[in-house]
Structures are given as structure tokens and as C-alpha cells.
């Protein structure tokens, strides 16, 4: 059992000192996960620290089954960050569809350029497709959460799920194929 796993278990059992000691151990990895999720095209307009701190708060406040180990913890973090990003995108889309209604002038091209809904829509569609995948094959959904939302490499995801890299690549390909079909069906 690693030091982090022991701290996580002690914190879960109510040890306040252990809960405080967890943060310095997990902060660098959590920051890497948050940063990986927020870079690239279509990234939500959240700051890395905002996603990181919101994720940690949600984890601290939510009831969970006992954590098996550090990999279980980081998988839970990836899932929590996914939900935060999706919630943020949904709120942003609600705003774009009239939540923050303003009178518009004749120049709507500037408004369209300022509101990149297409990327939000794709991420929300991905979230719905991922929920469908989780209903059919939860392990495939875990692979996607770790790789896409968690920013894990193949080796890190395989280690977190106790799989060989070859098995993880096969599951990743299967999950991507399912998601592509789901997303293609939604586009039609």
C-alpha cells in the first residue's frame, strides 16, 4: 500500500490530519489532469485552478465507496472533472440560448464568432454518447474518461485499470468506434 493510498483511506475514515496531508501529494497530478482537459480546440473557458479546486471540493463533499488505491482516486477525479466540464458547457449553452438575453444589432457575424457553440455541442454530444457507452460497457467508458478527460497516456490508463497496454489499446479502439458511431448518428 502506498503512502497516498494509506492517507486516502485514513481521510475517508475521518482523520482530518490525513485529509490535509493528501492535498500536497495529489496536487501536481490533479493539476496535470485539469490542464490536459482544458487545452486544445473546444476547451471550455475554465481556468486550470478553477477546474482543479472545484473537482477537489466535489470529491471531498460527495459520499463515495472506500477508495481502493491511488488509481481509483485518480479515476474518480477524472470522472468528476468530466462532470464539471459538462456542467459548465451546459450552463454556457443555456446562456447562449437566451439566459443572458441581450438585444442584438444587425451585425450577427460578430456574435456568432464570439460564441463557439459548435465545440460545446460536440463535447455535450460526447458526454451523452459516453453515458450510452457506460450503460453498455462501463470499462470502455472508464478508458475514455481516463484518456480523454483525465489526459492519461496509454501506459498510465493501463496501469490505473490494471490492464496490459495492448488490452487498453484494444478497448480504446473499441470505445472510439462506438463513440464515433454514436456521434455520427446524432449529427444526422
TrEMBL record:
RNA polymerase sigma-70 ECF-like HTH domain span: 1-184
Keyword entries, A-Z: Sigma factor, Transcription, Transcription regulation
Gene3D superfamilies membership: 1.10.1740.10, Winged helix-like DNA-binding domain superfamily/Winged helix DNA-binding domain (1.10.10.10)
Cross-referenced InterPro entries: HTH_Sigma70_ECF-like (IPR053812), RNA_pol_sigma-70-like (IPR039425), RNA_pol_sigma-70_dom (IPR014284), RNA_pol_sigma70_ECF-like (IPR011517), RNA_pol_sigma_r2 (IPR013325), RNA_pol_sigma_r3/r4-like (IPR013324), WH-like_DNA-bd_sf (IPR036388)
Signal sequence, start to end: none
Keyword Membrane: no
Origin: domain of life: Bacteria
The keyword Cell inner membrane appears for this protein: no
Pfam family, one: Sigma70_ECF
Sequence similarity: Belongs to the sigma-70 factor family. ECF subfamily.
UniProt name for this protein: ECF-type sigma factor
Organism: Pelomonas baiyunensis
Amino acid at each position: 500500500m502506498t503512502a497516498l493510498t494509506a492517507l486516502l483511506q485514513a481521510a475517508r475514515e475521518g482523520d482530518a490530519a490525513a485529509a490535509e496531508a493528501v492535498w500536497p501529494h495529489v496536487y501536481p497530478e490533479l493539476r496535470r489532469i485539469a490542464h490536459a482537459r482544458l487545452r486544445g480546440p473546444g476547451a471550455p473557458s475554465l481556468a486550470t485552478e478553477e477546474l482543479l479546486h472545484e473537482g477537489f471540493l466535489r470529491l471531498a463533499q460527495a459520499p463515495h465507496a472506500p477508495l481502493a488505491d491511488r488509481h481509483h482516486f485518480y479515476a474518480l477525479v477524472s470522472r468528476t472533472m468530466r462532470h464539471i466540464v459538462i456542467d459548465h458547457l451546459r450552463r454556457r449553452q443555456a446562456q447562449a440560448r437566451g439566459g443572458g438575453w441581450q438585444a442584438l444589432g444587425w451585425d450577427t457575424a460578430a456574435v456568432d464568432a464570439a460564441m463557439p457553440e459548435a465545440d460545446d455541442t460536440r463535447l455535450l454530444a460526447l458526454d451523452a454518447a459516453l453515458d450510452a457507452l457506460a450503460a453498455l460497457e462501463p470499462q470502455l467508458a472508464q478508458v475514455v474518461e481516463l484518456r480523454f478527460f483525465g489526459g492519461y497516456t496509454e501506459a498510465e490508463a493501463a496501469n490505473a485499470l490494471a490492464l496490459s497496454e495492448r488490452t487498453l489499446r484494444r478497448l480504446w479502439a473499441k470505445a472510439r468506434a462506438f463513440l464515433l458511431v454514436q456521434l455520427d448518428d446524432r449529427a444526422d
